[in-house]
Amino acid sequence: MLEAVGLTKRYGGRVALAPVSLRLEPGTCLGLAGANGSGKSTLLALLAQTLRPDGGDIRFQGRSVRGDRAFLRAHVGYVPQRTALLGELTVREQLDLWGRSCGLRRRALPEELQELLGLEELLGQRAGRLSGGMQKRVSIAMALMTGPEYLLMDEAFAALDARYRSRLAVWLRGYLAGGGAVLWCSHEPSELTDLCDQAMVLDRGEVACRAPAAEALAWLETEGRMPAGAR
What we know:
Strand order of the largest sheet: 6-7-8-3-9-10
Radius of gyration: 17 Å
Structural class: alpha/beta
Largest sheet: 6 strands, mixed
Distance between the termini: 33 Å
Number of helices: 8
Strand content: 25-35%
Order of helices and strands: EEEHEEHEHHHEHEHEEH
């Protein structure tokens, strides 16, 4: 079980995330909803430890893993909202570099992932010349290639065409059935209700509602905080 325990973050005098706690249990998908600026991406970045918290802890099976890079590389996959690929590298070079940094012995991306994400035709292309959707597919491959037990996914379907959204949705259901766990952040209500067991709504950095996904989204719409265009 992966836990956030009282995580906080401030930017200058502004509170981006008040103390937030959650548990990510094996075999479950927890949705994360809320308006822009509510703290969703900040929470995922803190859990992925690409951003340093001002307070709180991150625990795995009851022990602190805050600052434990080896744990992250072995057990956690993270898809950020904005991809951060090295534009001068080819996709193959990018994936090889990431694999080595994660301690993987194999050099090639597993065929299953190449097929799932349609990467065969992209391997020789420079990452900086890819479209947004193509870069997202590479970012997802990097998150999956270590076989992590936990996935932190921030708008992972954004920029993807319907074919890859459908493939990934099927893959994610199998991943969850096999005991994987997902923290899924999205502005799209259909993604949250289709994939998630429970959902947590953030409002101005605080947990405003935690309930089954459909109930949490109904609360969000009733409270008038549903993101524009997401109805």
